[in-house]
Amino acid sequence: MKILLLGANGQLGQTFLIHGGLASRGDVAAASRNGELTVKAANAVTGDLADLAQLEALLDTEQPDIVVNAAAYTAVDKAENDEATAMLVNGQAPGTIGRWAARHGALVVHFSTDYVFPGDASVPYAPDALTGPQGMYGQSKLAGEDGLRDSGAPHLILRTAWVYSAVGHNFLKTMLRLGADRDELRVVADQRGTPTTTSLIVEGTLAAIDRYLAAGADRGKLTGTFHLTASGETTWHGFAQAIFDEAAGAGLIARRPTVHPIASSEFPTPAKRPAYSVLDTTSFATTFGYPLADWRDGLRATLGQLSTQ
Ligand SMILES: NC(=O)c1ccc[n+]([C@@H]2O[C@H](COP(=O)([O-])OP(=O)(O)OC[C@H]3O[C@@H](n4cnc5c(N)ncnc54)[C@H](OP(=O)(O)O)[C@@H]3O)[C@@H](O)[C@H]2O)c1
Asked: How far is ligand 1, taken at its centre, from the CA of residue 72, in Å?
């Protein structure tokens, strides 16, 4: 089996390579924009989602049975002034991949985001809840979902949220960096979501792929749109408090900064963030037999990884 991993240098892409679960299931070609890999664990190829002709040529060359698309234009604020690139990479490329996969019978595993929702709910969003992105990033990711669904390819669209890991750029690493320099931090306390590790996403994705491959003629029942996050919920302020509590306990930081709760209005950003981002993961857990651990378990495990680096 041939597997093409797109976006191999992102925090999710790197975690797929470090984990090794794709490589134990097939021959992996790992694509980055410049053809170089941060994690030198696979056959490196060039894959630029902003160049749809190059992307099609890559698919023709690699002939994958499974495409795992971890690439995305993830600069949420920059996207507000860079609609064309965000729409090309997030909005159009998934459809291009999907149309190729539909012609070749390949499975497309694609990641999407809580930002497709308006964020005004008070109970977790189900996969079929009404979408309504508030900014360009969310609009472009929703366009990509639609393009992949319309392509006719067998697909798994896995929406996730508040992603972090021991590698790459994310909230956890920013907090640890700022906390090392400052005695006091101000963190938004009126946005709710579920911090989710890339390890959880990788392991959940592999469980879903395994179920899909084992289902034979019933595979069609295991495709569609699912929510893949950890369990539970908190605010960014609650997440920051937990980071410093756990990091102090693990001996990663010498002293714990004071974390003050602030309102989103005190920390204006070009793109509006959803106030409520919690995703209902029930259908993922039941369809793929994969229970989703509490977000605090992922935090402890990730800090454990950082303490041994
Ligand atoms: N991060 C979050 O909190 C979050 C939340 C919800 C959903 N998601 C989704 O989860 C998935 C993985 O995100 P992540 O956190 O791993 O993001 P990330 O760390 O920002 O990685 C994204 C990767 O995509 C690559 N990329 C950007 N433009 C590209 C292009 N034109 N062609 C090829 N590759 C390109 C980047 O390449 P370079 O390394 O060259 O920049 C980077 O390696 C994405 O679909 C994202 O939308 C993320």
From this structure: 4
Question: Which helix (H) or strand (E) element contains residue 57?
Answer: helix 52-62
Residues with CB under 6 A from ligand 1: 7, 9-13, 32-33, 47-50, 70-74, 89, 111, 113-114, 141, 160-163, 168
Q: Compute the average pLDDT of residues 239-245.
A: 97
pLDDT tens digits, 134-143: 999 999 999 9
pLDDT value at residue 61: 98
User: In order of start, what are the domains of the chain with their CATH numbers?
Assistant: 2-168+194-232+277-295 (3.40.50.720)
Nearest CA residue ID for atom 8, ligand 1: 113
Q: Is the pLDDT of residue 23 over 90?
A: yes
**Active-site amino acid positions:** 137
- Buried (b) or exposed (e) across 141-175, using 16+ Cβ within 10 A? bbbbbbbbbebebbbbbbbbbbbbbbbbebbbbeb
